[in-house]
Amino acid sequence: MFQCKILLDNEKATFHTDSHVSGIFKCFCKHNIRVRSVKIRLDCIEYVKWNRCLRFVKYDNYNVIYSHEENIFTAKRGVKTYRTGEFAYPFRIFIPRYLPSTFTHTYGKVFYLITGTVIPFIWNDFVDTVVILVQSPVELYGITRSFQREKIYYNETKFRRWKYGKEGKLVMQVRVPRTAFMPGDVVDIKIYVRNESNQTVKNLKVKFSKRVKFKSINPKNKSKRHVETILKFKKEGIGAYKEHTYDVRLNFPKVLDIPNLFSCTLIKLEFSLKIWCQMPPCIKNFSIEILPEMGHFFSGYVILIIVNRY
């Protein structure tokens, strides 16, 4: 009879990237057993899963983002190492900074496994695994990069409501102070709309959303997408041959779930700021879409403060 179990120093803790996970790998054996080696391994795995149509055909796809194994015991050559009773092997394994957060969704997840393995000379391996929760903050690198500067987005379109109707033109310009945001930010944007047509713009709408895309390894399967609206606004439209400048304030919630999925291949996260004019029937809505970045903190603030001091 042989039993082994991983005991973490803090079993209820949520671990962080760029830190260590420590614990003890305990083993108990009633009989004398010759051990070749004892290993501990950390795996970070992404996994996507969904059903297709009404036939409920499952497509399960795995991708190992990171795997690192360490020997915590190795028998010396020519020396027979026997173990009986209870014996324990302390371990300490590092979680690199660039790895993603633990993430769970209906269509997929990112999870971390710690696996302990005892490799005897004759018998099969003895294994125990434990799942850990890992948080990975999203760092927005460099305050001087382009996404920290003011940007202007411009778009225009020509249209006819009817086949032989008079041609009209619509112009939109969006001015944003930056395209990188954090939870709790208050950002003021300006939207300029000029209507050079005999049609009325019904409404101006603004929506900030979070999109998670789940990609299948099999090219025959379609990808899945989950969209969550964070902010939404609706402004009164403008009449024919008129123009107007809208002031819109983006007041982001202080608590916002931003998983770090940069290292993932099958699961991707993006944010969208979409501004569009809702047009009358038979005319396609006119829009500008911005893909900003969102994170937990900016790296570079401290550096700039130190440089400006001297």
Describe what is shown at a glance.
The chain is mainly beta. It is about 5% helix and about 60% strand. It is built from one helix and 20 strands.
Describe this structure in words.
With 310 residues, the protein is mostly beta strands. Helix content is 3%, strand content 62%. The strands form 5 sheets. Strands 1, 2, 3, 4, 5, 6, 7 and 8 form an 8-stranded mixed beta sheet that branches. The longest helix has 9 residues. The protein starts with a strand and ends with a helix.
What share of the residues does DSSP label as strand, in percent? over 45%
Calculate the terminal CA-CA distance, rounded to whole Å.
69 Å
Give the CA-based shape: elongated
SSE order in H/E notation?
Answer: EEEEEEEEEEEEEEEEEEEEH
State Rg.
28 Å
Structural class: mainly beta
How is the secondary structure organized here?
Elements: E1 2-8, E2 14-16, E3 19-52, E4 57-74, E5 82-95, E6 103-104, E7 108-120, E8 126-135, E9 139-141, E10 151-159, E11 168-176, E12 180-181, E13 186-196, E14 203-214, E15 224-236, E16 243-251, E17 267-278, E18 286-290, E19 293-294, E20 297-299, H1 301-309
Parallel strand pairs: 2-8, 9-20, 12-19
Antiparallel strand pairs: 1-3, 3-4, 3-5, 3-7, 6-7, 7-8, 10-11, 11-13, 13-16, 14-15, 14-17, 17-18
